[in-house]
Amino acid sequence: MKVLVIGSGGREHALVWKLAQSSLVERVFCAPGNGGTSDIAVNINIGVTDFPALAELAIKEGIDLTVVGPEVPLVEGLADYFAARNLRVYGPHAAAAQLEGSKIFAKEVMTKAGVPTAGYHAFDNADIALAWLDEQPADKPWVVKADGNAAGKGVLMCDDRGEAVAAVKKIMVAREFGDAGNRVCIEERLSGYEVSLLAICSGTDCLALAPAQDYKRIGEGDTGPNTGGMGNYSPVPEFSPELINFGIDKVVKPTLEAVPFIGTLFVGLMITADGPMVLEYNVRFGDPETQVVLPRMKSDLFELFMAAVDGKLADKTIEWYDDKAVTVVLAAGGYPDCYKKGDEITGISEANAIPGVTVFHAGTVNKDGKLATNGGRVLNVTAVAPTFNQAIDKAYAGVEKISWNGKTYRRDIADRVREK
Question: What's the predicted TM-score (pTM) here?
Answer without folding.
Answer: 0.95
